[in-house]
Design a protein that fits this description.
RGS18 protein; mainly alpha; disordered C terminus; RGS_sf; Regulator of G-protein Signalling 4, domain 2; 11 helices
Amino acid sequence: MENPLLLFPQLNISASKDKSYYKVMKSMTKEEPHKASKPGAKQKRNRLSLLLQKPEFHESDHLGKPGNLAKAASVSPEEAVRWGESFDKLLSEKAGLDAFTKFLKTEFSEENIEFWMACEDYKKSKTAHELLPKAKTIFETFIQKDAPKEVNLDFHTKEVTTQNIHQPLITTFDTAQNTVYRLMEQDSYPRFLRSDPYLNLVKGRNPSRPTLRRRSRSFTVNDFQGVRPDFTVW
């Protein structure tokens, strides 16, 4: 029987095998870069997560923590002691006001001191034209129902303030400001004076630096001078 390849010269089995082999290899080469790209993406995500963990990305968070009241400015123990004389003394000094504001942020009640400062700024207005826009902003931010930073006011105080807002005067927010002032003086201020960050300032300690521990005494060469070895144990 004659060889089939001689009868059908157009049939090339080896060529068909080469083509199928080429298709398989081609598909494998397409898949390999895809698989290799996955570890690269994972590494990028890891690098991004490490980058976000750096201190500079969370600097604002650190300022709100109790252990960082003295980071913004250097406070002497004598100055910190003066803050304990009265609540008015604390608020009259910029460093004290900053420290107390940071403390209130740790208790999620900073809207009280922000309202008080807004009222102080409001009373510095020079003309009647300045009063209306400032009064509107203060009312919408701190006074009205469901305000973004609504302060805790009794019903009577809120009603009087709401009525006076239509024709604002320098004294429009006096009653509300005094109410919030007394609330901070009787509630938040005593807790501030008992807080560890404040007590550290009074003692002259820097809250951002850990206390150094003394090293335990170790033996030196001099400790063994004059000591004769005992070989009887051998």
